Amino acid sequence: MNKTISLDIAGASYRMNVDADEAHLQKLAQIVNERVAALGPKAQQRATPAQLLVMVALGLADDWLIEQERAKSVEDTTR
Distances in Å between the alpha carbon of 14 and those of 1, 29, 62? Predict the structure, then answer.
């Protein structure tokens, strides 16, 4: 069942209709906001929310890729 929620991410509010667990989405938004904060105050002052989100997305994608490579390495060594 869809419901409308609001997520505050990188200084902007996003309303969306979702059927996902709201608490889970709020946790994901918190992770993104922590990543934005880690970019530092200069980045937050100079960059638009979209630019901040691109930087965070690239960081998360890089983390995911590293974890995929680690998982493959572990899998390869245990075969």
Answer: 19, 10, 25
Closest CA to 17 of 25, 1, 8, 5: 5
**How far, in Å, are 5, 6, 50 from residue 74 at the CA level?**
39, 39, 36
Task: For residue 27, give both structure tokens.
Answer: 């946790």
Q: Which two tokens stand for residue 75?
A: 């899998």
- pTM comes to 0.83
Helices (H), the chain: 22-38, 41-46, 49-77
Mean pLDDT of 43-55: 92
User: 79 pLDDT band (50/70/90 cuts)?
Assistant: confident
